[in-house]
Amino acid sequence: MPPLLHSPFINSKYRLIEEEIFSLLSISTSFNHITQIHARIFALGLHQNNFIATKLLTLCSSTSSINHAFLLFNHISNPTVCLYNTFIRALSQNNLPIQTLKTYTQMKNAQIPSDNYTFPFLLKACATLPPSPPLGRAVHGEIIRTGFEPDPYIRNSLIDMYSKCGSLESALYLFDESPTRDIVTWNSIIAGCFRRENVEKGREFFDKMPQRNVVSWNTAVAGYAQNGRATEALKLFRRMQYEGVKPNGVTLVGVLSACAQAGAVEVGKWVHRYIERSGIRMDVLLNNCLIDVYSKGGNLREARRVFDGMGERSVVSWNSMISGLAMHGYGEDAVSLFEEMEREGVEPNDITFIGVLSACTHAGLIDEGRRYFSRMVEHGITPKVEHYGCVVDLLGRGGCVIEAHELIKNMPIPPDAGIWGALLGACRTHGNLELAEQAVIRLLELEPWNAGNYVLLSNIYAAKGCWDDVERVRERMRGRKVQKTPGSSSIEIESSIHEFVIGDRSHPRSKEIYEKLEELGMKLKLAGYVPNTNSVLHDICEEEKEHALNVHSEKLAIAFGLIATPPGTPIRIVKNLRVCGDCHSATKLISKIEGREIIVRDRIRFHHFNDGMCSCKDYW
Ligand code: ZN
Ligand code: ZN
């Protein structure tokens, strides 16, 4: 880099030097420039000049040279309020909340009175600190004391701080008491409501606000998506377009994450084309979202195309692609992508290993799984309960049930329900009643509300002929409020999402759907299909069992898919629970009878049903 200062400031007046330094600072962009100019400032004896110091501090902050900013600030003998404010802003923007607050205390001790520029960044710092509600309140007290509370900018910062710190009540109170509310005030309170999972209230404010800008729309769209309400996020996005508001990159990140959740691949594709057409910069974040949408929507080829086309990738890009391959049953590909990642020198994180370990599980790569598990430590990553869960699952599925149990017993952290559930699954597959009993007992301690566990335990006792125990378990179950997550399945047809629950008759084409189901039932019977028998350890269907198995939500969604799309079109279903054994075998046959590819994403993984077979090879 060529030196910026080649001519000495000979014979110039003080002001001229000052101006020259100013203009140099305004064209500087790197730390290298800063050090050169700073050296010059020292040589010229200008280092106590507050104007120059302020400008230099701003530059340090924008080039992330925060250590240099400390050096600079500590050498000023009499900082002004403006310099303090600049330093506070620099610290807050560089995510140093403690230092921000310390500098404020220093400012107070030096008896420099704060002004309206001091507080917003202090509040921002409070919002990023974990125990910050009391700190935030203390700063609020200062604001009241110094008489700055009516300042609209400070008020907005207060609303933002309280909602981020978990005190939505205080934020709502300030909002109600605000004499003037600008668009920022409204946006802050909407963001606060969505952040605190008060979706209805957030929407109420959104509908009520007198005027909206793109930030308001982005906040609401992303707010719905983050609260798991993907369908509403997409609906709102459609209204945004209808009202002629031009989406930006932030909007599309919100929309794409909703698409990924809902498996809305068609909307995702539309957004993809929209980005290409509208000239919005396709950055790493948007690309990562697209990989997620395509892989969660069952279109792995397109996900891979996006991944391969990326000029720059983050660890998240690799993670999404690896776990995408794993979920679809391409374990070997996931593992080789991980090795490519290591070769390219991208440092994996704990999420990478969840992808790799579950890839090994789905592909039955037991030795590789064991090896990668020990490799985590080499990368300096301490295995979390999720990683243990993956390995227990891997060993269990591979028939190493005893080894899996040993691993659980030697875990340095307490095993969770997921781990006992994985062991139980293995015991079911490999018929180990003794260990299954132990696993269910642990599961009942951890999730006493789960009805499936009681049913399973009583089945185990029944199989052993311990009828007293059977009765005891039934007693316990009756004495408790047992609940089940209602199962639901959704399907995207022509960019709109149709959702079904068990025995659903609310769909406008319900009559045709049930007719189709009846027809399928006949065909399945002719093909020799028998509804799943109640073997002892398989009777823990997550979706409620009713007399008619054929009304499980995924069957309704499949039947609707069959009547609503032209022959040969693949059918993509998203289910919130695990697919039950009966639906799984029925779907295999339906794919053959109807000549359709059926892709089901359940809570655990993807099932690609084709010509009577499933990609999971009946392990899920
Ligand atoms: Zn089912
Ligand atoms: Zn399957």
Give the structure's gist in a few sentences.
By secondary structure, the protein is mainly alpha-helical.
Structural notes for this entry:
This protein has 31 helices and six strands. It has helices at 14-27, 31-43, 50-62, 66-74, 81-93, 97-109, 119-128, 132-145, 152-164, 168-177, 183-195, 199-208, 214-226, 230-242, 249-262, 265-278, 284-296, 300-308, 315-327, 331-343, 350-363, 366-378, 385-397, 401-409, 417-430, 433-446, 451-464, 467-478, 510-526, 553-564, 581-594; strands spanning 488-493, 496-501, 571-575, 598-601, 606-610, 613-614. The chain starts with 13 loop residues before the first helix and ends in a 6-residue tail after the last strand. Helix content is 63%, strand content 5%. It has a six-stranded mixed beta sheet, sandwiched between helices. The radius of gyration is 30 Å and the shape is elongated. Bound molecules: zinc ion (ZN) (2 copies). One zinc ion binds at residues 584, 607, 614, 616, 620.
Feature tags:
620 residues, mainly alpha, Serine Threonine Protein Phosphatase 5, Tetratricopeptide repeat, 5% strand, binds zinc ion
Beta-strand content: under 5%
DSSP strand count: 6
Please give the order of strands in the largest beta sheet.
2-1-3-4-5-6
Mean pLDDT metric: 86
Structural class: mainly alpha
